[in-house]
Amino acid sequence: MSMTMAPSSISINFTHPSSLVYLGHPLNNKPIRKTKNTNIQCILHSPNSPKQPYNKPLITNEDSDSTNNKPQWNPFQKAVASILDKFERALNSRELQQPLRKTADPRVQISGNYFPVPERPVVESLPITGTVPESLNGVYLRNGANPMFEPLAGYHLFDGDGMVHAVKINNGNVSYACRFTRTERLLQERKHGRAIFPKAIGELYGHIGILRLIVFYTRALAGILDLRRGNGVANVSVVFFNGKILAVSEEDFPYELQITPDGDIVTVGRYNFDGQLNCAMSAHPKIDPESGELFTLSYDFSKSYMKYFWFSPEGKKSPEVDIHLSAPTMVHDFAITENFVVIPDQQVVFNISEMLKGGSPVIYDGSKKSRFGILPKYSTDESSIIWIETPNTFCFHFWNAWEEPETNEVVVIGSCMTPPDSIFNEREEGLKSVLYEMRLNLKSCKFTRRSIVQEVNGEVMSLEVGMVNRNRIGRKTRFAYLAVAEPWPKVSGLVKVDLVTGEVKRHNYGDGRFGGEPFFVPEENVKEDEGYIMAFVTDEKTWKSELQILNGVDLKVEATVKLPSRVPYGLHGTFVEAKKLLGHAWDTKEKVEVKN
C-alpha cells in the first residue's frame, strides 16, 4: 500500500498497552529476576531508570486504531492464530520461570539509557553553546535499536526496531528529530499490536528457541505473517549512496529514507536497487572515495558461503561472487583497498544444532582456523582469492586497509575482540577490543600484527566504534577516531589515534556521561585530520542528551547542541552534506510518497 501525506503528519501510535513507551519504567514495574551470572559488568552500572515519563503518548496516529489497520483473517487463520498465541504464551511463561542470560535479559539489555524513546517530531532552533563550524551544513543521521513493543521474553540490545536520529544543521541553525524506520516487520507488528517476530539473538536460544521458530514459520504458512516482505529491523547503520539515504542491517534489504525540508525523517520503503538485489547485504558496505562504487557482502546463517558484489556509482549491480567457507560464518564487517577487498573468515559461526543442546546458535568455534581472504575488487569468481591464516584474530569492525606494494603487503586496521562471541554469549572474562595493525603478505602468505596503543598499568584501552577520514577509505591513513568502550558496552569518551606512533589524544565526556560512535566529517582538500567530530552524549545524572562537535585536530569542543529529548545509546551513522541532499527537498516544501 502507498499513500501520500505531508511529512509532518507521519507518526506512530504509542498508546497501545503493549508499547514500551506506554509502560512507564522500569519495564512494566515487574521485579527484576536474577540472571545466571550475578557479576553483571555492563549496562546495570547505570541507574535503573532514565526518569523520563512515558505515561503520555507524544505522537498520535489517526489510522492506528482503525478497523482497516487490523489483520483481516479467515476462520481458519483465526483458529490457527488462537492456538499459536496460547502456545507462545506458555513458552514465554516457561522461559520466564528460569534465570535469563544477561545477554538476553531485557532488564539488563534495555536498562538505563538503552531504554527506548518515543518518536520526536522536528524541534527547531536548538540552543547552542559555542559556534557550529560554518562548513558543517547538512544532516547527521545515527541509527540504533529502539524496541517499539515490550519484549515478551528474551531480548538483546541488537534486537530492537531501527530508529534514526537526525540533526539538521543549516547555516548554524540546528534542528532534531527521531523516527522509527517503517520496516515491513514493524508495520506487521503494529497491526498485531505486539511483538510477533522472534528476536534473533534474545529469543532464538535452546529448545525454546526451536519451538519459537516452529511457531513463527507456522504463522507464515497460515498467512498470519508475510515473510515475503522481509523481516529485518534496519537498525545498524545509515549509508548515503547514489543520492539515496539507506538504513541498513545485515539480515534484509536496506530501507530508503528521505529528509524533509524541515529535517524530519520519512521512510520511503524497502529498497532492492531497482529489482537488482535478491539477498541481504552487509550493514557495513564500503564506498570507494575515488570511484564512487559501493562494495558489499552478504551472508546467510544456514549456508557455508557468502556473496560478494558491488554497485557502480549509478547503482548498477555487478554479478555475485560466491565465496565458499567451511561453515556458516558471521561476517559483520570487511575492508577494501584501492585494488582488493579483504574478507574475514573468522571463528564466530552459526550452528543450529547447538540449539538442540540448549545453547545459542551463535558460537565461537575454536577448531576453525581464522583467516582473511584477499580478493581483487573486480573478480568474477573466487579463484583468485588469497587466503592467509590469522590466528587468534576476531575483528567485529575494521577501520581501514591499504596496500604497501614495496613489501607485497596489505595492511588492515581493526579492533580485535576477546572473547570473540562475548557480545552474544555469557562469558566470565570481561570483553576487550584492542586496536591492531595487521599485515598480510601476498607472496609469503604470512600474517603479523601489532597493538597500536601502548598498555597502561598492564591494561590496553578498549577501542570500538569509530572511523578514519572517509575520503581516504582504502588508502593509507594516519589517524583514526574511535570510541573508548569502557565500561563495556558504554562509551566514556573518544580518542584520536596516530596509527604510526600510537600517540593517543583523548576527550572524556565526564563523570556519569557517556556517548557512542564518533563520526568524523572531513574538510575538503586539506590535511587528513582537518574536520569535525560529531557524537551524541547523555548525562546519566539528568538524563539529558546533547550533540558535541569537536575539532578533529586537537579535540577541542567547538559547539554543544542541547537536544530536546534523551537519545539512547545506538550504533552507526553518517553525515550527508546539504549540497548532496538537493534531491531530498532540502530547500523546497513538498509532499513525499510513503510506501507502507
UniProtKB/TrEMBL annotation:
- Can you quote the record's cofactor note? Binds 1 Fe(2+) ion per subunit.
Q: Does the keyword Ribosomal protein apply?
A: no
- Chain positions covered by the region annotation Disordered: 45-73
Residues that, per the record, bind Fe cation:
284, 332, 397, 572
What InterPro entries does the entry give?
A: Carotenoid_Oase
The GO cellular component terms are: chloroplast stroma
Question: What UniProt keywords are attached to this protein's entry?
Answer: Dioxygenase, Iron, Metal-binding, Oxidoreductase
Cofactors named for this entry: Fe(2+)
Q: Name one GO biological process term.
A: carotene catabolic process
Q: Name one GO molecular function term.
A: carotenoid dioxygenase activity
The record's similarity note reads: Belongs to the carotenoid oxygenase family.
Q: What is this protein called?
A: Putative 9-cis-epoxycarotenoid dioxygenase
Source organism per UniProt = Lupinus albus (White lupine)
Q: What is the lineage of its organism?
A: Eukaryota, Viridiplantae, Streptophyta, Embryophyta, Tracheophyta
